[in-house]
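Thread: "does anyone have the structure for this chain?"

Original post by V.I.:
We have the sequence but no experimental structure in hand. Need at least a predicted one for the grant figures.
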Amino acid sequence: MTAYRWLLGFLAVALAAAVVAWAVGNDPGYVLVERGSWRIETTAVFAVGLLVALAVAVPGAWWLLRWPLVAWSRRAKRRAREKLAQGMLALAEGRPARAGNLLQAAGRLPSLKQPALIAAVLAARQRGDTAAHGELLQKLATTEGGDVAAAVLRAEAELDDGRAGVAIELLDALDQAQRLPPAGVRVLITALARRGRARESLAMLARLKK
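Reply from O.Q.:
Generated one for you, tokens below.
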């Protein structure tokens, strides 16, 4: 398909050149550019050709200058996506240390930062690294819209560690702000039940059902 397009392009250029040659005939025109002592004389055909050549050469030169940066950017994005996929796979295979390294590397790409951080939080939790877990949750909370997910993940960790009261406090704050997602409702129901507040947890089951 590309060769066909190139062929059409060459034919179009040849046709345009033939039309120009026919239109010009024996009179190539005259162009004079003068400024002070500076003077340029040439034919109109050459002047038009020069302008066309510049119109093609300038964008081409700009593309050549940008090409290394564009190629490097594409390579970095591709490697980041590969690391995210490998990190998720390692997390599913139960290799949280490897997963954490890969996911944090993938998170350097802005478009992958949130999913990489969420998975890295789970990897840190899986390997029992409480310091990294807390640090990653703080980073997730500072991303755009990531504060809710960070609060739910933190509450889930507190609940797993036997601190149901802390989990309830975290999720109640989201509930009061009407920002409690379904995953937060599920964790809150479990936390309320563990604190002996079964009536409140049963009342929230209708919300979870929705």
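V.I.: this helps a lot. The chain has a mean pLDDT of 85.
O.Q.: and Residues 185 and 207 are 8 Å apart (CA to CA).
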